[in-house]
């Protein structure tokens, strides 16, 4: 039997992004440059650039912005054949400042209400467009777009035979939630997924705790939970799969290992019962632009998961892909060559702890490896 046609399918809204040409308040910035944004398409592009087969599923308008998004995302090697064009709704756009998203100085203004993507629903997104994959990657942003989008995520995370491994990034965007349901909705969706990413700062806003163990108590059902600490450690909680639901890791024929889960949501478990807990510190990074690191982390982690790498390596590859984004000017970055990233991820704990990455590190070779080892 042939395997899935994709390594990762990413579903969600992509937008045209207007980036400021200099620091400052939106009211004071005189000009902007055009780019693309959207957590799910960012992950798809990063994974495609890293050599994986990816598909982005979404909806855009029949306007020029929709043309730009499709051409740009496809240019990264992402399959956009399942994207639908909506003649009645526009492509979403947003403007942002270049300040860190976690600070009060960060401003973002969305023009996405009533967008083409907000019309996604179980009726407009056929299941077979997202099911032919090893991993289905979703985020909480989609749940905030409309009740129909929320229903779609609920449908895609429902237990069913043959369901792909579901990856879910909580990705809480307070400006998109017009009601007080974010904490409950995102917690429910996370508990229906297999692999979950959440920032400690997001968990604090949503559920009143940034402590990784306490977050695990709130999200006991995913087989893997990764709590990201911003510039601090990322902590993974992994529950071994029962023998009847053993994860299969096999060679795909292209040198990569593919990880396929049981295809059904996990049943209730005692918080942290049987978990393996791994914490990996983030390297020091000279930040050029602070936005998009979470998407980079998810892409790096999922890439390592597809290759069958162990937990510490997955977390380190997540940190490295996040660092690639942080040291680049936009939301997307060219990932480091795989051999280069593998060398860094394989450093001893002491050398990893001394790692210091700045702009341009992703194109570095062996000599730069030696430099970062000794900083």
Task: Write down the Rg.
Answer: 19 Å
What is the terminal separation in angstroms?
50 Å
Total strand count, please?
A: 18
- Biggest sheet: strands side by side, in what order? 4-1-9-10-11-12-13-16
Number of H- or I-type helical stretches: 13
In terms of structural class, how would the helical and strand content be classed? alpha/beta
Instruction: Give the helix proportion (percent range).
Output: 25-40%
Strand percentage, roughly? 15-25%
* Spans where pLDDT lies below 50 across 5 or more residues: 244-271, 366-371
Q: Assign an overall shape.
A: globular
Main sheet record: 8 strands, mixed
Quaternary organisation: single chain
Average the pLDDT over all residues and give the rounded result.
87
Q: Would you kindly provide a written description of the structure presented here, covering whatever features stand out?
A:
The chain is of the alpha/beta class and 375 residues long. Helices cover 31% and strands 21% of the residues. It has helices spanning 39-49, 64-75, 128-131, 140-143, 147-156, 182-190, 200-207, 212-218, 293-306, 311-326, 338-345, 349-353, 366-373, and strands spanning 6-11, 15-20, 32-37, 54-57, 59-61, 84-86, 93-96, 108-111, 133-139, 165-169, 195-199, 224-228, 234-238, 248-251, 257-260, 276-280, 284-285, 356-357. The chain has an 8-stranded mixed sheet with strand order 4-1-9-10-11-12-13-16, with helices on both faces. α1 (39-49) packs across α9, α9 (293-306) packs antiparallel against α10 and α10 packs across α11.
